[in-house]
Structures are given as C-alpha cells and as structure tokens.
Amino acid sequence: MSGQAGKSIGVLVMSYGTPESLEGIEAYYTHIRRGNPPSAEQLEDLTSRYHSIVGGVFPLRENTNNQVAALQRTLDELAGAGTYVCYQGLKHAAPYIEDGVAAMAADGVKEAVGIVLTPQYSAMSVGGYMKRAQEEAEKHGIAFKAVREYHLHPELIDALKIRVTDGLERLGGAGSSDALVLFSAHSLPAKVLEMNDPYADQLLATSAAVAQAAGAENWQFTWQSAGQTGQPWLGPDILETLEKLAAEGVKSVLVTPVGFVSDHLEVLYDIDIEAKKFAEERGIRLERIRMLNDDPQYMAALAETVIEAVRGRNGG
C-alpha cells in the first residue's frame, strides 16, 4: 500500500471516538478526564447508559468505521481510485489523531487534509483536533490543510431536510400546527462565548437553513449533553426546553441533532431514552430524525469539502 499511498493525498477523518466495547468504558473516560479515572459511581452510571442502548452488542464504533469507508468510496468515485486515501484519527480512543498521521507517514504520504465529522467549527472542538493533527504532521514533514467547517453544504442541508420532512410526517405532517422541530447540539463550556467562537452561530445557521428547506416554520434550538465540570455550560438544556414547551402546550416535538452525525451515546441515550421519557411524562410526543451515519449525501458533502480544500478553498 505504501507505494500507492505515497502518491496519494491523505485524508485524516477525525471524530470524538467511542469505546470499542463495554470493557473499554473506564479507559475511554479516563482519557477524556485527562488521566483521572471516573469514580466507581460515575463508572457504574456510564456503563449502565451504554448497557441500556446497546445491550450485549456494541455497534457504536462501527458507525465511524463505516463513515470512513463510505467516504473513501465517495472520494474514489469523484476523484478516481488512489487519488485520496482515508485514515482515521480519534480524539479519545485508538487510533488516536497522532496514530492516523503516523500511519500516513508510514505510507509515504506527503500531503494531507484533515476533516472532522462535525459540520460546525469551534476552537474547543474542531480547532483542538486540527492543532493535534497539524503538530503531528509537521513532525513527519507532511503538508497539512485543515477543513474548518461545512455547516451549510447543500448536500448536508438537503440530507437533513429529508429527515425533518420524514419526521414531521410521522408526527402528522408538516402542516400539523403543534409539531415543533427542536434542533440540538452538544453544549460547550459557556466561556466559549468570550472567545467570539462561531460554534453557536453556525449551529443556528444550519438549523435555519434546514428549517427553511423543510418548510418548518415552528422551530427552536437547544443544547444537550453538557459536561459535569462545575463550570457553566451553554444552555438552555434540552430538558429545560421541553419543560418550557410543555408549559406552552406543545404536544409533539421532532428532535433534530444538527451537531451530531451518527448514532452514539448522546443521541441513543440522551435523546432517545432520557429526553423521550422526560417529554412523555409531560404529555409531549417526542420523535427524532434518522441520523446521517454513512448517508450518501453526507458523504458527498464531506468528499466535496475535502476536494475543495485541496484546491485551496475552505482549507487552511
């Protein structure tokens, strides 16, 4: 492979990472907590959450593997086989970001593009991934370009529009006056606002574009999955929002997690179990859109963004 890859442009596909198995949860969260293992109580809570969504099978890691494989196929179709070679780099699990860059170097790759499986940019998320990748690339003499964002790519918006339309049909059709589309994304520490960070604005821009495309006039945005750090995080949280909507008499909600691209804990537990139960207890029917996962339109958005970055657009 090294001979072929050496002539290819490397594509470092980055994401947050997830444990490979239920047994790997402690090591995974120890890495997230900068080497501090979770307490026995925290570990039990985390493990029970994973148990409740996956049972005896652990398919979450396969989602990222499938996305990287699908992106490789899409790049081959658009640019020709061998033009690009995809590598995986995870923030909190192996193969780590540095492992992905080292694998490129071992294959003789001299030019690479980094893209994160998160459409919206934040210095705290995407910026951190890119910093690690850039530093490792420099060690190996690899010319590295970073994709900042692709939150308004037409293929991404259309793929989400289709999912919102489908979801509204399940809730009684787009004309149903009480069906509210609730866009959501992973919260970040509130100090991000002091940095003039574009994360919140880009999430609102994605949400507005999808709502307009789907003809959904009744929509709001909310945050979810905030960390327990003792510091303030961006809000309101989805449970607070649902409480307010219930008080306003809203009876049906379609959660649209525009800050997430695949089925994992924050979607399968935080929305499908926790938020759904919370909503039902308050008389709200809560449905969720299908996640993008390896949807061909999402793969096209990623592939086209990578190719544009190589040509000098949307990269840095």
From TrEMBL:
Pathway where this protein functions: Porphyrin-containing compound metabolism; protoheme biosynthesis
Alphabetical UniProt keywords: Cytoplasm, Heme biosynthesis, Iron, Lyase, Metal-binding, Porphyrin biosynthesis
GO molecular function, one term: metal ion binding
Annotated binding of Fe-coproporphyrin III, by residue: Y16, R33, R49, Y50, Y129
Enzyme class: lyase
UniProt GO BP: heme biosynthetic process
One CC-aspect GO term: cytoplasm
Primary site of residence: cytoplasm
Role according to the record: Involved in coproporphyrin-dependent heme b biosynthesis. Catalyzes the insertion of ferrous iron into coproporphyrin III to form Fe-coproporphyrin III.
Record-linked PANTHER family: FERROCHELATASE, FERROCHELATASE, MITOCHONDRIAL
UniProt family annotation: Belongs to the ferrochelatase family.
Name of this chain's protein: Coproporphyrin III ferrochelatase
Gene name in the database record: cpfC
